[in-house]
Amino acid sequence: MGLVHYFIGIQVHAHNYGLFLSQEKYTTNMLINTGMADCAPVFTPLPLQLDRVPGQTEPTYFRSLADFTNLKRVLHYLKGTYLYCVNLNANTDITLQSFNDSE
What we know:
There is one protein chain. The chain is of the alpha+beta class. It has one domain (about 5-90). About 30% of the residues lie in helices and about 15% in strands. It is built from 2 helices and 4 strands; from the N terminus they run βββααβ. A 4-stranded antiparallel beta sheet has the order 1-2-3-4. The longest helix has 23 residues, at about 60-80. The chain is elongated. About 5% of the residues are buried.
């Protein structure tokens, strides 16, 4: 079978001392499919400041616009961080943690 190179959206690159794990391919495809491949990168997933907006007459419509704006911001963030990876090696003392927010 050989070494794994791609597993559940994560690229695995073996090197002499361990593994690099990244989602470069997955993220690049997502940016292309959403038409955001050439967007300007940002380095925080959400704005650092909250923009206060006066009350809206249609709260459902306003929330959907806010969600769309936040989604676009996350795509800009992914554009700026898609080359990040995790380096795992035999000497790495790492504890992987996972969080789930489901109801």
